[in-house]
Each structure stands twice: as C-alpha cells, then as structure tokens.
Design a protein that fits this description.
Helix content of chain B: 25-40%
CATH topology of the largest domain in chain B: Rossmann fold
Radius of gyration of chain B: 28 Å
Oligomer: heterodimer
Number of domains of chain A: 1
Distance between the termini of chain B: 33 Å
Largest sheet of chain A: 6 strands, mixed
CATH architecture of the largest domain in chain B: 3-Layer(aba) Sandwich
Radius of gyration of chain A: 16 Å
Strand content of chain A: 15-25%
Number of domains of chain B: 4
Strand order of the largest sheet of chain A: 2-3-1-4-5-6
Structural class of chain A: alpha/beta
CATH architecture of chain A: 3-Layer(aba) Sandwich
Strand order of the largest sheet of chain B: 3-2-4-5-7-6-12
Distance between the termini of chain A: 16 Å
Shape of chain A: globular
Structural class of chain B: alpha/beta
Number of strands of chain B: 24
Order of helices and strands of chain A: EHEEEHEHHEHHHH
Chain lengths: 205, 645
C-alpha cells in the first residue's frame, strides 16, 4: 500500500480534535508533503472562534486531477485521524461510511459542558466499540500517553503524523516527511523526529 | 505562516488564500500594506510584514481599518502601489473615506482594498456581505474562486486600478481566505520606485489637480466613466469562465468558494453533461454582454453565492432590460428558496439544490450505515462549547466583576465588545456581558446608560474592551464619557496582544508589525491625561480586583478606567514555564457533599479543572492546566493546592 499512488480520487482525510491540540499543524505537514509529491491538495479548517477548546476539524482533499473544495461532502470521508475520542465519533457520525479507516488517540478532553454537568462524556469502552463498528479498520494510538512519557503532550502531534504515514493510508513515504517535519517543528526537532518514528512503529504493531 | 517571498517562479506551494493574496501583491510590486487584524483577513498583512524588511517594502498594523485605508491611499497618491486588508466589519469603518476616495480618484499607483467576509460569522459578531458595498460606493469588484486566482487576481487588480484611476476591491470569504490549496508562483519584481507627491496640472495645464471629491457632481460623472471602463475590461476577463455542455438542462451562475462547491456538487451527482457552470470572477460592474451570451444555454438558471443574492439580482436586472422577445429563463436561488440568503454554503447544500431542481436522487452514503451512525452515536457526542483558555486572565477578571457586582447588589451590568472576551456573554464569562455589537460599541452604549440617572437608573455600568479594541475604537467614546460626565467604568482587559486574531502587536505592545521596537502609547497615561481616574490591577489578584471594582462602582460620578493587566496565557506559555504545579487534595475536596455546589467545575469552568465522576471529586487535567493557580483561590475548602513549580 505504501506510496502506491491514490487508491481513490479524491482521497478525503479528516483530522479532528480540540482547539489547541495541533490540528492545523498536522494538516499542514501532511499537505506540504503531498504537494511536494505533485498532488493537488485542498485543506479546509475550522478555526478562529474555535481556536481553543472548541471542536476543530481539517478536511484534507487529495487529487491528481483537480483542486477540490475545502469541504468533504457528508458521508464521504476515507480516513479519519482523531486526536480526541468524542471528536472522532462526531466526525464518523457525519462523514463516515462502511469503508472509512480510523486512527484514534483515545485520550479524552472534557468540554466545559461535560465538566459543568450539562452533558455526559460517554463510557470509553462503549465509545471505542462504536468507533470500531463505524469503521472498516481502526488503529488505536495512545499518542498523548506516549508523548507524556517522552516529556511533553505536545509530541502527540508528531506521533500521530507518524501513525498516519506509517499506516500506509496516504500516498506518502516516511522519508518524504523528513523536510516538512523539520520545518514544522523547528523547536526540539530531534525529539519530534523521534516521536514521528514512534508513531510509525506504534501503528505497525 | 508560509514564506511568501520564495523566489521560485512556477513552483507549486500550498498557501492559504490570504497568503496567496499577499504573494499576488508582492508579484504586483506593492510597496505599502496596512491593515487592522480581523478573522478571516489577518494573515494577509501578517505574511507581508514577515518579509517586508527583506523586500524593502513597508507593512503596518494600523490602529484601525480607516487609518489603514487612508494610509494606503497616501502611498498611492505618492506613486507607491498599496493595499489595505480587513474583515467585513472593517469595510463599514472605512466606508466614509471610501465614499470620498471614489470621487477624488487615486494617485498614479494602484490602490486595492481586500475585504474578507465571514459567512456564518464563524469568527465574527455579525454576518455581512460586502459585495453590495462595492456597488453602493462605485468600486470595481472581483472575487477569486480558487487559491491560484486569489494570487493572480490580486496582481491583476493593481494594473486595473492604475489603468482606470480608481480603487478596486477584492472580496474573499473564509473558505478561500483560511483554506489552503496549490498556488503556482510567478516572478517577483524589482523593488518599488521612489515615492513622490507630484504636482500634476489639469488638462488645460492651468490649475494644479487636487485629490478631493469636489466638484462632486462632475467627479461623480467621471466615476461612472471609470466604472464603464472597468466593465469593458471585465467583459473579456479570463477570470470569468464557463464549463459544461453547449446547451444545458441547468445553468449554474456562481462566484468565489461557491464555484468549488458547485463543481463538487455536479461531480457528486454525475451531471457533468447536463449542468453547466458559469463562474464569474469580475462581479461588479457586471460583464453584461458576457452573461447575456450564456443566458440562452438553459431555460433554468441557479445562482450559487454566499449571503446576499448579489449576482442573482444583478442578472435579473440585466434580463429585465433585454428586448421583450428575449427568452425568459426560470431563476432559482435565494428568491426561490433553494438556497438561503444567510449562512455559508458547502457542497452538500449545493448538491441538495441541484438535485431538487433536476429531480434526481442523491444518497451520501449507504443508508444502513447512515442509520447505524445516527443510532449508535445518539447521546454519545456531547457539545463542546467554546471557553476561555486554561490560565486566561479574562476568566479571573470576569470572576472579579461577577463578585463585585453581586456584592454591590444593584444589578450592575457589563456592556461587551469584540474580542476573546465576547465570550463573557456566555458561561465562559459567567454571563456577565449583556450587550455586544461592534468594535468600541459597548463603550458608546455605556455612555448612554451612564446618563440615565435622571430617569431613576441606578445600575452600575461596566464597559469592557480589550487593549487593541481600546486603541481602535474606544478613545472617542471615553472622551465623550469624561466630558459629558457619564457614569460608567471602562474596564480595559490588557493582555498585551490582539489575542483573538493571532497576537498582533498594537500601540500598547512596543513592537511594530515588522518587528521593530516602538515607543508604547501608554493607555493609563492617555486616560489620565483626559482627566479620568485610572486604576491598574493584576486580575489574578481576585480579592484585590473585586474590592477595587466594588469601591469604584460605589464611588460613581463620571467615567473612570480600570485596567486589568496580565499577558495572554498563550503568549506567556510560549516563553515561560508554568508558575505553579496545581493539584486537588482528595482529602480536602468533599465533592457533592460540599455546600459550594461544585463551584470550580460547574461555575468557574476552567478546562484544566475536571470532575472525576468515579471519585466524586474535582481533579486537575495535567495536559490542559497551565499552572496559573487562580482556582486555588476560589475553592472554599482550600482543596485546590498550588505549589511553586
């Protein structure tokens, strides 16, 4: 599957999480790597008012033929990278289909609605089961936990990029990520590169 | 932000629309750029400022949009190509100057206004279409339908402005401005020429020309001639294009990001051989001959555009003026109810509209899966309301305001304003703000409320503005309040950045857009010079801040200023380690048994504080907590412990 071109055109990837987690960084790294491989890439982001704490999503649309719009139509996601469990489920509900592939970081971030008691965070076992039922394949990557072990939760971004590339769902070789990763994480480059390789390793286990 | 000055013509870069616009301006040989930050426009000036020094151009964050536009006009008057960029609200602020500028004309060098609209008001107080502003004031208007066009159109617009001698406007929307796509770069020109405000004589070489709107009737007539010239150019512009069959069952007329949605929709419905798309890039004056040529492609026409039925009405106007025996197509769009005249569109809304007109069915996904997705997620996807960041100084300020007003007991109220602190209208700011309109609007409203004592009004009034908003729009209203002795307190939330839009500098920060040091315009010195009582506090001192506010509202007697000074946590957190390590002592936290009714997690609502359902106690989420330690001061049991980190 590795670097075998697009298995579908357009290939629709959603990256989702909570504002502040690093959605935009991940989509930019993946997008830049794909453009340097000659693809037409469109990325739509929700940010601004949802910069911190709100649900965020990036729609990444990859094609050899045309510049697609920055919105994936409902039910048409091919891959979902979920940095937070409930947000992953939110995307599956709207954009999922029987063929969708899901990579999920199972570390919850509680919203103020949950903390304040107006809403309930679902039981994690049940949630993960629903994610499995709604996906053709699921990779569970404990990115936040691994990142904390490496010294900072911020390394979760590079771990998840590693998992995404290592899973082989994108037409990207892990070597093609090297320059864009170094540009995206100018601080602590080596630690982030190590986190990236950790992600590749975790997804292949 | 991407580096927009790469000297690599013909290479393809992944740019957001705003960066593409900035690159287009560089390729046009721009010398001067000015803006006030506002989502979704901020990265235009932001990315220009990053490279300005190196390229020998000038870029500034102006104090507000009006000054930005006027400054850019000044550069144009002296022969330097210039642009001003802003969000939709900024265009309102600028409109008075524009209404005069269209009469006076510009200088020798091109002048361009970039307006970024925010359909659905994702990051705005209001939803507003600025395309009608161009028609209202008489400004040639274009709108890019792709990232590539964002660059190419911007570049071309400077040529057009120079050729016809008037300001030109480019409208963009969030899904171009903030979306990313491939952009093939062009050449970067040599540095701008020498600036000079030349004496130019009129045609008879008698009177020196003056850049002014009078004599108005004459100059208004001249403006119409210029707009006629623009229309002529638009008729053959490559930014207008038709793709589809010669004769179509349905003709879609569209512009901007809606062009991308329309293409997606036609593809998703597999109607490429039945539905044609006419994309207009030059919107006003409408290229009427071009549109007319396409009108007989179909008996049915659907307008796909965001917010106002701008093209829809323009084309209807055109059709009304055609000879009586011309074919009359059926129009679909906002008027027919197939699309809304509010909210942003997307491929799904366009798919629905086209499917309904064409009478075809569309199934987004396997129906069994759809049902399973709905059923299995029901009740399992809790809302995620926006709130102040963990460690945000505003949470502390509004906590103090809430408590001071409660202690005062007269149902005091807060007039809100534009910034992160707009969230004070909701749970993040404990519902303290009761009004919110435009930049500085809350201070003006407070002026009125503060003069109602003769009608028995006795509620304390606090007008809240951010530091950048203070410089932008609050100063005249403060002067008014001081001079007319209106009874309110101007609370300035000074976090030393234009935080909501990306931490741009302002006159209080001591740096310029280009990163050069500048003398701070001290807000307290300014307010004191106006004769106001001014107090400065760190809002993290909850007790002291509350006491101070309580004393100030009790004192009454004219406009006063309270400055809440603490750096934005997102800025501080990048430079420094957390000051405290915070944890909840499970022995001291008595959970639901405490009379506090979960003050920390139910009311204070910092995302770093969570509720451990199993233990029935509060807990710190160590991934989110920034160690500000403020919550330690709100727990009645003293169960939240902060230790110096």
């Amino acid at each position: 599957m590795m670097n075998a071109g697009l298995r579908k055109d357009p290939l629709n990837l959603i990256i989702t999480g909570v504002g502040g987690q690093g959605n935009v960084t991940i989509s930019l790294v993946i997008g830049n790597a794909l453009v340097s491989e000659g693809y037409l890439v469109t990325i739509g982001e929700t940010y601004g008012a949802s910069q911190r704490g709100g649900p965020v999503m990036s729609h990444v649309r990859i094609s050899k033929e045309t510049q697609y719009s920055p919105f994936i139509p409902e039910g048409r996601a091919d891959i979902i990278l979920g940095m937070e469990p409930v947000e992953t489920l939110r995307m599956l509900r709207q954009f999922g289909n029987p063929d969708v592939l899901t990579i999920i970081n199972p570390r919850p971030i509680y919203s103020i609605d949950v903390t304040g008691g107006q809403a309930e965070y679902p039981d994690m076992d049940e949630l993960m089961e629903t994610v499995k039922q709604l996906s053709a394949k699921v990779w569970t990557i404990n990115a936040t936990e691994e990142a904390q072990r490496m010294g900072s939760p911020m390394f979760a971004n590079a771990i998840l990029i590693g998992a995404l590339v290592g899973s082989g769902v994108l037409p990207l070789d892990k070597r093609s990520l090297d320059p864009v990763l170094r540009e995206a994480f100018p601080k602590e480059v080596e630690a982030n590169m190590a986190a990236f390789h950790k992600g590749v390793e975790l997804v292949r286990q | 932000m991407a580096n927009i000055e790469i000297d690599a013509p013909s290479t393809s870069q992944l740019l957001i629309g705003n960066e593409a616009i900035a690159r287009g301006a560089l390729e046009a040989g721009i010398g001067f750029a000015a803006a006030y930050p506002g989502t979704p426009s901020s990265e235009i000036l932001g990315s220009l400022a990053q490279v300005a020094d190196k390229l020998g151009i000038y870029a500034e964050w102006s104090v507000n949009e009006k000054v930005a536009m006027e400054a850019a006009a000044g550069a144009s008057f002296a022969g330097i190509r210039a642009l001003a960029a802003m969000k939709q609200n900024g265009v309102n602020v600028v409109s008075d100057f524009l209404a005069n500028l269209v009469m006076s004309g510009i200088g020798e060098a091109g002048l361009v206004l970039i307006s970024c609209d925010d359909p659905s008001a994702i990051s705005s107080s209001n939803e507003q279409d600025t395309r009608p502003v161009a028609k209202w004031l008489g400004i040639p208007l274009v709108e890019p339908g792709s990232f590539q066009e964002a660059k190419d159109m911007t570049k071309w617009l400077f040529d057009l402005a120079e050729e016809i001698g008037t300001i030109c406007m480019l409208r963009s929307v969030t899904r171009i401005a903030h979306a990313r796509g491939n952009v093939r770069l062009g050449e970067l020109p040599k540095r701008p020429k020498k600036a000079r405000f030349d004496q130019v004589h009129d045609a008879r070489n008698v009177l020196p020309t003056r850049l002014m709107p009078i004599p108005s009737a004459l100059r208004h007539g001249l403006l119409h001639l210029k707009l006629g010239k623009a229309k002529e150019k638009f008729e053959s512009s490559p930014f207008n294009q038709y793709v589809g069959p010669d004769k179509a069952d349905l003709l879609v007329i569209t512009c901007g990001s809606c062009w991308l949605y329309s293409q997606d929709a036609v593809k998703a419905l597999e109607l490429e051989d039945k539905v044609g798309i006419l994309k207009l890039g030059t919107l006003w004056p409408l290229p009427e001959q071009l549109v007319e040529q396409h009108l007989d492609r179909s008996q049915k026409i659907l307008f796909v555009e965001e917010i106002d039925p701008f093209l829809e009405r323009s084309v209807m106007e055109l059709v009304a003026n055609l000879p009586a025996d011309s074919p009359r197509p059926v129009f679909y769009g906002k008027r027919s109810g197939h699309l809304n005249a509010y909210g942003e569109l997307n491929p799904d809304t366009v798919i629905k509209a086209i499917a309904s007109i064409m009478g075809v069915a569309y199934q987004p996904r396997d129906s069994e899966y759809g049902k399973k997705a709905e059923d299995s997620t029901k009740g399992h996807v809790p809302e995620r309301s926006i709130t102040f960041c963990a460690g945000c100084p505003h949470r502390a300020t509004f906590w103090a305001i809430k408590n001071a007003l409660k202690l005062d007991g007269r149902d005091g109220l807060v007039t809100g304003d534009i910034g992160c602190y707009s969230m004070a209208l909701g749970p993040a700011g404990f519902f303290q703000a009761r009004t919110m309109h435009c930049m500085g609007g809350g201070v003006g409203v407070a002026n009125g409320l503060g003069k109602l004592g003769q009608f028995g009004f006795d509620q304390p009034v606090l007008a809240v503005v951010g530091d950048s908003t203070f410089y932008h729009a609050a100063i005249p209203a403060l002067i008014n309040g001081i001079y007319n002795q209106s009874d309110f307190i101007l609370v300035i939330l000074d976090n030393n950045a234009t935080a909501m839009t990306g931490f741009q500098p302002h006159p209080g920060t001591g740096t310029t857009a280009m990163g050069k040091p500048a003398k701070v315009v001290s807000m307290e010195a300014l307010c004191r010079s106006l004769g106001a009582r001014v107090e400065v506090r760190d809002p993290f001192d909850l007790k002291g801040t509350t006491a101070m506010l309580l004393e100030m509202v009790a004192e009454g007697g004219g406009a006063k200023v309270a400055i809440m000074r603490r750096e934005c946590e997102l800025v501080r957190g990048r430079k420094e380690k957390p000051p405290y390590k915070v944890h909840v002592d499970p022995d001291k936290c008595i959970g639901d048994a405490c009379g506090c009714d979960r003050l920390c997690t139910r009311v204070f609502l910092c995302p770093g504080l969570i509720w451990d359902k199993k233990a029935g106690k509060a807990k710190i989420d160590e991934v989110i907590c920034t160690g500000c330690g403020v919550c330690a001061d709100i727990c009645p049991q003293g169960a939240i412990i902060k230790e110096a980190a």
